[in-house]
Amino acid sequence: MIKKIFVLIPDGVGLKNFAYGSFPEIGKQLGYDIIFWNQTSKDLSEKGLKQIKLKPEPRAVTDLYKRAKIESELNHFTSKFNDPVYQTYKFPSSGNGLKTRLKNSFVRMMVNMHSGEKGVKHLQKRMEEAERRSKYYTECLEVLKREQPDFLFCTNQRPLTAIAPVLAARDLGIPTGCFIFSWDNLPKATKVIDADFYFVWSDHMKQELIKYYPYILEEKVIITGTPQFEIHFNDQKRLKRERFINNFGLQISRKYLCFSGDDITTSPYDEAYLQDTAKAVEKLNSRGYDIGIIFRRSPVDHSGRYDDILENYKHIITEIKPEWYKAGESWNEILPKEEDPGLQTSIISNTFMVINLGSSMVFDYASYKKPCAFINYDPEGKSALKDVAIIYDYVHFRSMPNRNAVLWIDNKDEIPGVIKKVLEEEVSSNVENSLKWFKKINIQPAEKASERFWNFISNLPSRKVS
After folding, report:
1. 64 in Cβ contact with 106 (< 8 Å)
2. 427 or 466, which is more confident?
3. Helix extents (H) in 335-403
4. What is the pLDDT of residues 366-407, one digit of tens each?
5. Are 225 and 446 in contact (CB under 8 A)?
6. Whether residue 142 sits in one domain with residue 97
């Protein structure tokens, strides 16, 4: 019988989804011995969780094979589905030094040598073979042999640092499972982990996984939903309006909307959109409205690009920073504090809508039956580094059952009218369609995701592992 579970935490997203929510407590109540195999700097023993620290040291060549595999796979998807959108998921390598040029040449050679489905599989094999020769892989083997877990669950399908631990478990015959952590990840060819079982948000995502990886058997894909939305259904975690207003120095008479920031890659001129929104609110307030903006930046954005806007519009904008912190220089070393999910859901609870550029916050607000407006224009006076039309052509937006699932802001002059429409409660059809979209993307009820994970694990002994 399954009793000891290893939960591999390679980054902050894994912490937020599986260490800070209800997942550990449900497993504990069911009698499981849960060990967090923790690659982050966060000390989980501080919150009473068992952990084994894991210092990830993948080989440099493994990363090169990973890069080549992803690029080759995107080429394969382009050809197989006759769709150029997959080429837009490629990112140029940064840096111009000799070492960078040599690495890029190696990646380019690997891509040229390995095309199509067979080529992608071969690069996956080369990536795994490279990692088996690492000291890191040997250390993972030793831990697994000593601890002898019954199941290894990886909370993210894409980190380079997760390859060796999952590979070591598979080589020892320990059943493995991997969570596809985001709704937009599969078309981007970010799956670098091969596991026995895959956990996905919905039937829609299950069909996507099988479409992109036809070698995965249908019964190996488990629909659980994602724990990230569970917080919105926990009354104990959100601040009531009076306390929320007092905590952040807000005005009790004001109605607040949320401007949710994007990362600098997705929205390189996000500060311009914040300024346009502030000007729109200023215009509405001059006509007798009393509206404020709560600005929540992307947790991975610690830049100063919003500073001038926040200063110039401090009479309208209040920034409430995500409770994340930099534990290192790379993106996966930006980690959440345990307070952040409660802070995020409190912001949603106390705002009447959200404005952003194509964020999954649409589903967070759908959980509260509140509307989302998507920015759908390029900022004026800027040579756009990324045309906004490219973003909304991404595959995950094609899952939208009805374009009216969100309110569209096609130019900055439309912002006041969109806000006014929400305030006058003329958006019931938009909210209804956003809920339909949410139900398509994430199995309902959304608050039962962690229970579904444990239900699968409880039945694991009766399942065959390939």
Report:
1. yes
2. 427
3. 340-349, 361-367, 388-391
4. 999 999 999 999 998 776 667 898 999 999 999 999 999 999
5. yes
6. no
* CATH number reported for the structural domain that contains residue 150 in this entry: 3.40.50.2000
Helical packing angle, 116-132 and 98-113, nearest 10°: 130
CB of 438 closer than 8 Å to CB of 363: yes
Domain that holds residue 303: 232-441
Instruction: Judge if 250 and 301 occupy the same domain.
Output: yes
Q: How many domains does the chain have?
A: 3
> Do 304 and 286 belong together in one domain?
yes
Let me know whether 360 and 302 are in one domain.
Answer: yes
Query: CA–CA separation, 38 vs 14, rounded Å?
Result: 10
Q: Structure pTM?
A: 0.95
Instruction: Write down the H helix ranges in 30-174.
Output: 60-80, 98-113, 116-132, 135-147, 163-171
Tell me which residue of 447, 24, 48 sits closest to 235, measured CA to CA. Answer: 447
- One domain, residues 182 and 110: no
Q: Are 69 and 164 contained in the same domain?
A: no
pLDDT band, residue 466 (cuts 50/70/90): low
Boundary (domain end) residue, out of 90, 108, 129: 129
Bond from prior residue into 445 cis (ω within 30 degrees of 0): yes
In angstroms, the Cα distances linking 3 to 28, 149, 280, 320, 427 are: 10, 8, 56, 41, 49
Q: What's the mean per-residue pLDDT of the chain?
A: 95
Tally of CB atoms within 10 A around 3: 10
124 and 169, same domain (yes or no): no
- What is the residue type of 253? S
Provide the token pair at 227.
């724990």
Specify whether the CB–CB gap between 5 and 150 falls below 8 A. yes
CB 9 within 8 A of CB 43: no
- 7: which residues sit within 8 A by CB, 6+ positions away? 14, 18, 19, 34, 35, 36, 37, 153, 155
Q: Could you read off the pLDDT of 269-296 as tens digits, one per residue?
A: 999 999 999 999 999 999 999 999 999 9
Cβ contacts of residue 388 below 8 Å, gap of 6+?
357, 375, 376, 377, 378
Q: What residues does 260 pair with on adjacent strands?
A: 296
d(CA 208, CA 185): 10
Whether the CB-CB separation of 186 and 179 falls below 8 Å is answered with no
Regarding whether 50 and 183 lie in a shared domain, the answer is yes
Read off the pLDDT of each residue in 193-217 and give the average, rounded to a whole number.
97
Rg (CA), the chain: 23
